[in-house]
Amino acid sequence: MKSVMFIGYGSMAKKVHEMLPQNIVLSTVVASPKSAESIKAEIGDSIEVITCVDDLTNMPDLAIEMSGQNGLKEHAIKILEKCIPLGIVSVGAFTDETFAVALADAAQRNGVNIRILAGAVAGIDGINAASFAGLDRVVYQGRKQPDSWKGSHADQLINYDHLKEATVFFTGTAREAAALFPANSNVAATIALAGVGLDHTTVELIADPALEHNIHHITAEGVFGKLEISMTGLPLAENPKTSSLAAFSALRLCCQIDQTLQI
């Protein structure tokens, strides 16, 4: 029997917990102080709920972060110092260079691996493989309906009332996009880390009044040829702000703990 620890227990973590196979158990949840008691009441006494990694008593085979960037930054290094492999959903945190270096140093110092999860998009394995031969160009387009951009930096760039057709309102690097749109940074950062880096990956953000669901489009060109992927991302039924594929990406990593044959 293998065990996993979750950082965070929101809608994504709950879906992963619900779908864990019988040979893998959730042993520990790292929660914020304000949510710890309600999580304890929800999941029962058989699962340890802690607010600090120093309080860990049941050593898991894997930790997966599903808490957002703040939770990752608070707990990740202590997890690595306990020699626990770590899977990361909130990849946008890697745009903070100081944190990224500290995380890599902690992993190397303790001889443990960090896994960047593909999250809401596909094709990350192909982009990463192609990067070894050389990539000339990587472009990520994030296309959403206008209401999905409201409350972000897009408010300063879009006149929502007069938007009649698909409009590109931001073009820049993945690092710039992550700084201006932190809530939408994970996909762009993941693509960038797999390929040509945060400062050489182009991000285009689009508001499209004709859409019902978000669309992710990736183009990568290089020595290998050309890759194009277009995905319509559907959210979890439990939370329209959470990608269902991102949850299944975390579930996949949990299942790989006990898989002899891995894809």
Q: What does this molecule look like?
A:
The protein has nine helices and 13 strands. It is α/β, with parallel strands linked by helices. The protein folds into two domains: 115 residues, NAD(P)-binding Rossmann-like Domain (Rossmann fold), CATH 3.40.50.720; 111 residues, 2-Layer Sandwich (Dihydrodipicolinate Reductase, domain 2). The protein has a six-stranded parallel beta sheet, with helices on both faces. It has a five-stranded mixed beta sheet with strand order 8-9-7-10-11. The protein has a two-stranded antiparallel sheet with strand order 12-13. Helix 3 links the parallel strand 4 and strand 5. It starts with a strand and ends in a 7-residue tail after the last helix. The model has no long low-confidence stretch (mean pLDDT 94).
How much helix is in the residues?
A: 25-40%
CATH topology of the largest domain: Rossmann fold
Strand sequence of the main sheet, in spatial order? Answer: 3-2-1-4-5-6
Question: What characteristic shape results from the CA principal axes?
Answer: globular
| Main beta-sheet annotation | 6 strands, parallel
Number of domains: 2
Mean pLDDT: 94
What is the CATH level 1 assignment of the largest domain?
A: Alpha Beta
Q: How do the helices and strands follow one another from N- to C-terminus? A: EHEHEEHEHEHEHEHHEEEEEH
Work out the helix count. Answer: 9
Provide the structure class.
alpha/beta
Radius of gyration: 19 Å
Q: Beta-sheet strand percentage?
A: 25-35%
CATH architecture of the largest domain: 3-Layer(aba) Sandwich
What is the count of β-strands? 13
